[in-house]
Amino acid sequence: SFTGGKAISEAKAASSQACQELCEKDAKCRFFTLASGKCSLFADDAALRPTKSDGAVSGNKRCILLEDICEESNIQYSSGDLDSPLTAKSSQECMALCYKDPQCRIWTYLVPEKQCLLKSITGFSNRAKATGQKKSGGRLGCARCTRAAIAFGGKELQTVSGLPHETVCQFACELNKKCKFFT
Predict the structure, then answer these.
(1) Of the candidates 118, 111, 61, which has an alpha carbon nearest to the alpha carbon of residue 86?
(2) Hey, do 1-62 and 64-183 end up sharing a CATH topology, with the first three levels equal?
(3) Is 54 exposed, middle or buried (0-12, 13-18, 19+ CB in 10 A)?
(4) 3-state DSSP helix/strand/coil percent for the chain, to nearest 5?
(5) Where do the Apple domain residues begin and end (predicted)?
(6) Is the pTM of this model over 0.90?
(7) Three-state DSSP class for residue 138
(8) In angstroms, how far is CA 123 from the centroid of its own chain?
(9) How confident is the model at residue 121, as a pLDDT?
C-alpha cells in the first residue's frame, strides 16, 4: 500500500478495480490504495512510500500489465539457488514455496522429478532455454503494474541493454541496492 501521503479523497469500494476506476474519474488522482473496503486517492507521490500491508492493494491511475512471468515453459535459471531442491507436486506449489521464502524471487520446477528450486534475485541473470521438462516463474506470479509514459529523473545508475521485457528490467533494478526506479 502507499503510506506517508495525504489522501485527496476517500470512498467505499468493493474491489481494487472499483477503486482504480474512482481514481481514473478524479482528475487530480495519480495513485490509489484499497484497504478494508476503503479507497484512498492520492494526487502526488512526493511523500508516498510503498509499504507492505496485508490485505491492502495499491496502484496507479492507469495500470499497464507487464509481460507476465507466471510460468514459462522450458525456461530455467541456472544460478542463485537458495537451498537444496524441495519436493513440490506442481509448478503452482513451487511458486507458493517461493512466495513463502522472503529471499526467493524466482523459481524453477523440474517436472518429471517434482523438484522445486528456489532462487535469489541473482539467479535472474542466468535465464536460459531449459533442457528437459522445466518450468520457471517469478515469486509474485503474474500481474505487475508499471507507469506508462513516465521517465524517472535522477542519477542514472546503469543502462542494461537487450532485456526481453519490462519485468526483467524490474528485476535488474532490484539487483542493484541503490536502484529505486527503472525506465
Answers:
(1) 118
(2) yes
(3) exposed
(4) 20, 30, 50
(5) 1-63, 70-142
(6) no
(7) strand
(8) 16
(9) 79
User: Cα 66 to chain center, whole Å?
Assistant: 9
Residue 72 has which C-alpha cell? 514459462
Q: Please, which residues bridge with residue 100 across strands?
A: none
Q: Which amino acid is at 72?
A: E
Name the burial class of residue 143, with classes exposed (0-12), middle (13-18) and buried (19+) by CB atoms within 10 angstroms of its CB: exposed
CB burial readout 146-178, b (16+ within 10 A) else e: bbeeeeeeeeeeeeeeeeeebbbbbbbbeeeee
Higher local confidence (pLDDT), 91 or 177 = 91
pLDDT in tens, 132-158: 898 887 766 543 454 444 455 567 777
Provide the residue ranges of all domains of the chain, joining segments of one domain with +: 1-62, 64-183
Q: Which residue has the higher pLDDT, 135 or 56?
A: 135
Which of 135, 136, 138, 87 lies closest to 114, judged by CA? 87
Q: What is the band of 85 on the pLDDT scale with cuts at 50, 70, 90?
A: very high
pLDDT in tens, 94-123: 988 988 888 888 899 999 999 999 998 788
The CATH number fitting domain 64-183, selected from 3.40.50.1860, 3.30.390.30, 3.40.190.10, 3.50.4.10 = 3.50.4.10
| CATH architecture under which domain 1-62 falls | 3-Layer(bba) Sandwich (3.50)
